[in-house]
Amino acid sequence: MIGIFILTALAFVLSFVLVVVDARLNKVDGRLREIESLLPGYNCGSCGFSWCRAMSEEILKNKDIYIKCRPLRGKAKKEMEDYLGIEEVK
Amino acid sequence: MSPISIFVTSVLAQNIILTKFLGICPFIGASNKEKNAFHMGLSVMLVITLSSIITYVIYHFVLVPTNTTYLRTTMFVLVIASMVQLMELFLKKYLPGIHKTMGLYLPLIATNCAVLGVTLLNINNDFNFLQMLAFSVGSSLGYLLIIYIFATIRERLETSDISKSFDGIPIALLTAAIMSLVFVRYL
């Protein structure tokens, strides 16, 4: 019984440390989360990056690169363009 | 045994890779380039030393008084995993280049059995604090030394003429076997 308490307490302490350190060190840009939620999230890799988060980091640096995402089309693509402020080329 | 003799034995004669066969996965996987191997060895060294100290303190001041020593494996795995995560956070912030090149092998240190092996051996051998420190620093230094030597040999092997069926991992495994023979003084 006491083993359960000790294990739980240690897990709490360790996770608390990790959360605090993470919050202190890596301040995530709020836009990164938004861009990632606008991407399809298949982690397909057809854009050339290993997963959607790597792609959204690249979009933050250079927004034109969003066009490389192949599953992004139709309404989702329109939303992404609205978010990035890009006019569709006719 | 004095801490100094423990240190020397754990670096050379009882090397953790070549005589105890712990931590083979990153030994083969992360040793294709000299630089990668060096970074890998340094990170393993940091994780082993930190988690040995923490697990030693937890074992002797929490688990022994409450008579729950049967929990040690679970506890130690927990501590090691969080140490690795912590190190990953620091590397990501301060050395993003290394974080990128190490890639998947960095979080995989959590499953590197050399780390769990050293922390459990510290307990099983009934070391006091200084001996524990000597053993964990020595073992991890041995790890760094061997993975670095192995990587330099592998870089050399890449440019040499090897028959096609042996190229790559097979010749690396044979090299490891010969190194192991040297270290247990059969050659």
Main attributes?
heterodimer, A: 90 residues, mainly alpha, 60% helix, elongated, B: 187 residues
Question: What do you see in this structure?
Answer:
The complex is a heterodimer of chains A (90) and B (187). Chain A is mainly alpha-helical. Chain A has one domain (2-84). Helices cover 60% and strands 0% of the residues of chain A. The longest helix of chain A is centred in the first third of the chain and has 24 residues, at 2-25. Chain A starts with a helix and ends in a 6-residue tail after the last helix. Chain B has 187 residues and is mainly alpha-helical. Chain B has one domain (3-183). In chain B, 71% of the residues lie in helices and 0% in strands. Chain B contains eight helices and no strands. Chain B has helices at residues 3-11, 24-29, 34-63, 72-94, 96-102, 113-124, 129-159, 169-183. In chain B, helix 3 packs parallel to helix 6 (113-124), helix 3 (34-63) runs antiparallel to helix 7 (129-159) and helix 7 (129-159) crosses helix 8. The relative contact order of chain B is 0.19. The model of chain B has no long low-confidence stretch (mean pLDDT 88). The A-B interface holds A 2-3, 6-7, 10-11, 14-15, 17-18, 21-22, 25-26 and B 58, 62-63, 66-68, 70-71, 74-75, 78-79, 82, 85-86, 89-90, 92-93.
